[in-house]
Amino acid sequence: MGCSQEPFIDHYRSLLEKAPENGKDRFCFTEILYHALYFGFEAYGIDNAPVVKTIGNDLGRSISSIFESETPDGLLREIGDFLEFHGKCRVTVLVDFPALQIEDDFKARLIPIIGKPFCTLKEGIIEGILKGKLDEDYKVTETECYGTGHEHCFF
What we know:
This protein is mainly alpha-helical. It has a domain at 48-154: 2-Layer Sandwich (Muramoyl-pentapeptide Carboxypeptidase, domain 2). Helices cover 50% and strands 8% of the residues.
């Protein structure tokens, strides 16, 4: 859980400065809160990514029963629809690879370039849904992200 890399204190302070002007806007404040938690842990030297991914995995397994498909390809399409609905984003499902490309995700698109992927919660949720529905272990890794300077997230 310890983090030996450079803390993200500048990003964290920037979010704290934005909070008062956005405190009455539910959407903006929720986004600031989400990012402040992530950058706050990093700023104080704690790598929370392993725990966040585990929580996502638990959540994904708990909701896996709402998905109908019994095949990986069909399930990826359903996961894409689910992420579009809840993330207000666009998801492209690449079945042959297999991969999900997510654009305009409200939580990710406004983060600064931090040099590493940001969406560990989503990695865990996708893994958990796949494991819970198909009863097989899957490893989901985000390789491209708004945080790495891309205009999308790629899992």
